[in-house]
Amino acid sequence: MWSRPVGLELSTHPGVLAGGLYERTSGAAGQPLGSYQRRAPERTVLHELVARHAQSMLAELRHADPDGGGLPRYVERELAAYLRCGILAHGFTRVRCQTCHDEMVVAFSCKRRGLCPSCTSRRMADTAAHLVDRVLPAAPYRQWVFTVPKPLRLVLARNPAWTRWTGALVVRAIGAWQRRVARKRGLPTPRTGAVTFVQRFGGLVNLNVHFHLVVPDGVFVDDDQGLRFELLPVPTNADVLAILDRLLRRIARRLAMHANAGAFEDDARPDVLAQVQADAATTWRSSTETRATVRGVERLRAWCEGFSLHAGVVVAAHDRAALERLCRYGARPAFAQERLAWTADARIAYKLKRPWPDGRTHLVMEPVAFLRRLCGIIPPPRRHLVRYSGIFGPASKDRHALRALVPTDRSHEAGDARCTEPRPSQTAGPASRARRLPWADLLRRVFADDVLQCPCGGRRCIVAIVTDPALARVLLARFGLATEPSTFAPARAPPQADLPWDDAL
Predict the structure, then answer these.
(1) Which of 41, 108, 284, 330 is 20 to 30 Å from 291 at the Cα level?
(2) How many domains does the chain divide into?
């Protein structure tokens, strides 16, 4: 904190005029506005953690595995891809201004969805933009969150079929309640839908498979006037508890059926991934979760036997920005990179979102232990983390009519990265763009910064894509940038066993 405001007349920045205005930091008012800066992942705590300790962790797990296999290949590929992500020596794109010829380089990304904070954040923003621009029509939306007990979380993490079935069960239970209420209000053929986000993590970087659903707070009706939306009454505490009871009965029946058939025997076989996921499910807060073992409901949140269902978050029909934030929350990364820090004794400290009742503000772990937790929450490949159901589903006959109800404002688009004039954005329709938003459009949408707009007033465009490592090193040296690629540190040798000392020998 500062003792008093610093006036411009006291600023040390050259060329600042005297007078009357105040700035928090000396010279800040005279500085140019902020612009795009490369994220430099090699300077982050996570990058240093993976580079230093990944090979040691993998070697330890191979040594502990009776078969010598260690973690699955997709986990090792995720670690290797993250280490290359954002590093200019592994390839980049050259972007140049057409007017002043100022040039910048943009590194390639790994495009993974489990570990890399940058790529998972891009996926979060891109998924939310796709939903708001092309899928979700103008209507109020409610978030439903369904969580399961700790033993069942491991079953969902190990068995993708169980995850798929459980998510579909929640969608059917909520949709059945909505259709029942709609028929009581005289709507004979109501149509429901939901977008389900499968989250494999909790707030403590722990394995916690649960479901976030974005559900219209009503139903769609198709009549002579076409497809339209009909608002339903707000669910009560009794409604939420009744839906949870139905979910518990169905899950208990399926668990009993699979247990009698011996379907869990394969999942019970010990392997390295199972041990890593079991360790990652630790929360250190079992004493504060005793309420989840009893039955109750309050403020549209019901819980029973370790299960819970929450429906207390709603977004108004006109607030598309809030709807996009809600979708980003469902598709968010597993952890915040800014909360990671090294301690004085070379351990990892992860800052909690809010202090615990005992006053603890950080989780402190050994580097390898924290890295194992991250590996435990990496999703397996070819498993959807966003699912569309009902009227939003890919097989819905009403999808085309539903797109006509989606607002068409596209004021966020930054224009084409090719050497052309920026395209008009207001005429774009729900299906007029590609599924994946371009890099520049996404940055403008999230940060309100048009990176293709040069400070001189000209437009930047892509002039080259450099993939050859030798050429990349030559160009980076010319630009005065780092030319060395990222590499793993070699695995450390296992600790030596403590043997008894015999003076007679």
Answers:
(1) 330
(2) 3
**Strand pairing of 92-97 and 386-390?**
unpaired
Between the CA atoms of 297, 298, 301 and 303, what dihedral angle is there, to the nearest 10 degrees? -30
Alpha helix (H) residue ranges in 26-130: 45-64, 73-84, 117-130
Is 458 a domain residue? yes
In Å, how far are 46, 318, 413, 451 from 426, measured between CA atoms?
40, 18, 9, 20
Task: Check residue 2 and give its pLDDT.
Answer: 38
What values do phi and psi take at 481, rounded to 5? Answer: -110, 165
Is residue 25 domain-shared with residue 59, that is, in the same domain? Answer: no
Secondary structure string (H, E, C) spanning 462-483: EEEEECCHHHHHHHHHHHCCCC
β-pair type (362-365, 348-351): antiparallel
pTM: 0.85
* 427 in a structural domain: no
The reply to whether 91 and 209 lie within a common domain is no
Are 67 and 270 in contact by the 8 Å Cβ rule? The answer is no
Judgement on whether residues 23 and 89 belong to the same structural domain of the protein: no
| Rounded Cα gap, residues 312 and 298, in angstroms | 10
My answer on whether 17 and 36 are in the same domain is no
Considering the domain architecture, whether residues 216 and 203 belong to the same structural domain is answered as yes
Residues 318, 463, single domain; the answer is no
- Residue-number span of the structural domain to which 205 is assigned: 137-334+377-401
Q: What is the pLDDT of residue 268?
A: 52
How does the average pLDDT of the chain come out, rounded? 85
Residues 244 and 170 grouped into a single domain: yes
268 & 385 share domain = yes
**Which tokens belong to 219?**
């139903």
Asked if 242 and 417 count as a contact pair (C-beta separation under 8 A), the reply is no
Under DSSP, the state recorded for 118 is H
Q: Is 169 exposed, middle or buried (0-12, 13-18, 19+ CB in 10 A)?
A: middle
d(CA 6, CA 4): 6
Residue 1 has pLDDT above 90, yes or no: no
The alpha carbon of residue 111 and the mean position of all alpha carbons in its chain are separated, in whole angstroms, by 12
